[in-house]
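Appendix C: a fully annotated inverse folding record. The material below is reproduced so that readers can follow the format used throughout the book. The structure is listed first as tokens, followed by the designed sequence.
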């Protein structure tokens, strides 16, 4: 039997909580609304859980025409999809300079209060083009404010293998995948090159090197040493800890939980 898609996860604001869906649409940059918003400091540099683990306490829901953002001891913040301004400003995510639009003073004040320093929420527009690294791009692919690729895929079996080695098991949300697959062997995804999920063709292009975000407890914001300490004992490649695969989609479409995952070709 073929593996099947068991989870679809969307993360509207980079490094904040995501949510799961039974089905979701793929657009050129990835899933609709996925990592289309990002927090930056006053110099336009991106902010993530790597340095500010409290961001894991911020939950985000997609409504018909806005995001509803909530966090402990904060009133809800509503972020309209329709932007107040079309003035683009330069921001930086990793080594990429991107144009984005500041959402609003209200959003800036809300996040500044929550984090305890001045920052602002910016949005990616259709004008904000961020190419995928040309060493991995298949068809002039573009990406949102995600770290580097539109989609991240992990199998349930890979997490089960990891949890069998840990004293305290951890949930899949630690790894923030967009796509979770069940019905395959542990780390089978490492060997996949081309796959089909439903009617969407995907290219598995690069293993995902994991960082300290995986050590942040998504319920408390506390940092620990796991799972990186254990993963480093058996999933280290070139001094990087590998878990999950970065994926490009060859066409737009709608993915649904329960879709078959057909492996078309394997990597050499």
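Designed amino acids, in order:
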């Amino acid at each position: 039997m073929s593996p099947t898609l068991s989870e679809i996860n969307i993360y509207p604001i980079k490094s904040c909580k995501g949510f799961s869906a039974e089905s979701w649409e793929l657009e050129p940059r990835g899933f609709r609304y996925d990592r289309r918003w990002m927090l930056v400091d006053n110099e336009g540099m991106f902010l993530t859980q790597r340095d500010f683990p409290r961001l894991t306490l911020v939950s985000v829901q997609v409504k018909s025409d806005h995001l509803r953002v909530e966090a402990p001891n904060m009133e809800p913040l509503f972020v309209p999809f329709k932007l107040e301004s079309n003035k683009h400003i330069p921001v930086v995510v990793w080594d990429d300079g991107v144009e984005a639009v500041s959402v609003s003073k209200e959003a800036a004040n809300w996040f500044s209060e929550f984090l305890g320093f001045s920052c602002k929420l910016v949005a990616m527009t259709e004008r904000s083009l961020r190419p995928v690294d040309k060493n991995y791009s298949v068809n002039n692919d573009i990406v949102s404010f995600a770290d580097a690729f539109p989609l991240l895929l992990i199998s349930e079996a890979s997490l089960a293998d990891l949890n069998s080695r840990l004293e305290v098991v951890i949930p899949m949300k630690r790894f923030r995948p967009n796509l979770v697959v069940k019905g395959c062997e542990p780390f089978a995804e490492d060997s996949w090159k081309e796959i089909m999920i439903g009617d969407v063709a995907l290219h598995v292009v690069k293993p995902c090197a994991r960082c300290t975000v995986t050590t942040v407890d998504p319920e408390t914001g506390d940092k620990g040493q796991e799972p990186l300490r254990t993963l480093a004992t058996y999933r280290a490649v070139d001094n990087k800890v590998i878990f999950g695969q970065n994926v490009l989609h060859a066409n737009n479409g709608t993915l649904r939980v329960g879709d078959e995952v057909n492996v078309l070709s394997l990597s050499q």
